[in-house]
Every structure is written in structure tokens, then in C-alpha cells.
Amino acid sequence: MLQVRHLFLSAAVFGVVLATTRPADAGLVVYTDLASFEAATSGLSDVNFNGIVAPGQFAGYANPPGYTDPATGTNFSFLNANGADINVTSATYYSTAFGGPVLPADVLNSSSVVPIGASESITLPANSTAFGIYFSTYDTSPITVTLSNGDTYIDNSPPGFGSFVFLGFTDTTPFSSLTITDPTASGVLLADAKFGIPEPSSLALLGLSSLLLAGRRRRRQGALDNDRVSLTASGLMV
User: Which run of H or of E encompasses 206?
Assistant: First the structure.
């Protein structure tokens, strides 16, 4: 009965993980909501763009080198941008300037002269095995995320302008950078990023505990079986 319980517990643990993630390339796990990502990761660094510019304003950063977060050293730039700036833009800029939506946070995005299809590049300060972003697009065309380890993921239904969703990854192979490409627009709008090598999650620890208990129980059962054999051989047990 104990063995059945532990098998059920292990199945439940792995069932929770599978139910909240989507597979991509081998070793790469994709998370489409923050709750499931945080259940699988902890101890990550965070980058956001709030408070860098005044409300209703934006600031351009020459590209290259682009914008580097002073707290973490994470660099954001555009590849093949022909020298066009990358911007940090207030959440209220599009509403103030064009009567558009108020964004949920200040964002990092392309300037108006970044070429269509230019890839947005994010260079991390060190190798990581987890990365997550809140993002929006200028249209709803599929975007491609390519990690420096060669793994890729295509989001075929990204949000439209002003709507932000979470997209996260964990990978068994470390990566130091990634690119985001929208072939019909000038990159995406980024509101927040999380990255690092996560500490073991509670789900992983629970699964490991189950496996350790099962192994201990098998060793104990093996010892009992050996004792029975010895007693039988000596005539003390029939």
C-alpha cells in the first residue's frame, strides 16, 4: 500500500508540472503563465523599466550598445537595426501622444525607424537556465524566440498592441542570450524580465523526496528478504 501511495504522489507531482507547461525543443519547457513559472523556479533576478523616464515621455538609447540595466547588467539591443535607437517608453506615452492605450508598465521597445523584422537581442550577465518576460506586440503575427544554445520556440498567437502576457522558459542546457523576432514588425514591447539559474522548486523537492523514500523502502525490503533467506538456510525459519 505504501508503494502505491508513493507512486501516486510521484505521478501527481509530475502531472502538475505537465499540466501547466508546454514542450518545445528537447530540454526546453515553455510556461505561458507566471504562476506555473514561479512554481518551477525561484531565486531569479528581475529587470523592469519603471521610473526611468517621466510620465508621458520616452528616452532613446543608441543601438549599439542599446540599453543596459544598471542593477543586473542585462543588455537589450536590436540586431541589424542600422543604428536606430532602442527606447524606454512611459506607460502613458501612447495615450498622451496618440490617444492609444495606457500600458500596464513602462516598457522597452523599438524606435520608429528600427527596420521591420529586426531581431530584439537580450544578453544576460551570466549563463542561465530560466528566463521569462511580460510582452506585447505591434501586431499579432507569430514571434520566434531563439536561445543562444540553439533551442527555439514559436509563439503563434501573441497578444496585440497594449495587451501583455507572460512567456517563460526553463532549459536543461544553459544559455547566455536570446533573440525575439517578429517578421512583420519592429520587435516587441517588453515590460518585465526574469532570469537566472533557479533554486530547486518545492515541486521538484517533493518529487525527489518521494524517490528517496521509495529507494529507502526498497533497500529495507531487500535487507528483510536477505534475513529471511539466512534464517531459512539455518533452519530457524520454515
Answer: helix 202-233
Neighbouring C-beta atoms of residue 65, cutoff 10 Å: 12
pTM value is: 0.76
- At residue 26, the pLDDT reads 75
Rounded Cα distance, 150 and 129, in Å = 13
Task: Give 50's Cβ-side CA count (13 Å radius).
Answer: 9
For residues 79 and 176, what is the distance between their CA atoms, to the nearest angstrom?
16
E strand residue ranges, the chain:
22-23, 28-31, 45-48, 58-61, 67-68, 75-78, 86-89, 107-110, 120-137, 143-147, 152-155, 165-181, 188-196
At the top level of CATH, the class of 9-202 is mainly beta
Query: What is the number of other CB atoms lying within 10 angstroms of the CB of residue 168?
Result: 25
Count other C-beta atoms under 10 Å from residue 158's C-beta.
Answer: 20
| All three cell numbers of 148 | 543562444
**3-class state of residue 160 by DSSP:** coil
Sites in the chain below the pLDDT cut of 50: 1-20, 202-203, 206-210, 224, 228-229, 231-234, 236-238
User: pLDDT, tens digit, for every residue of 157-216?
Assistant: 999 999 999 999 999 999 999 999 999 999 999 999 999 998 765 445 544 444 555 555
Decide if 176 contacts 130 (C-beta within 8 A): no
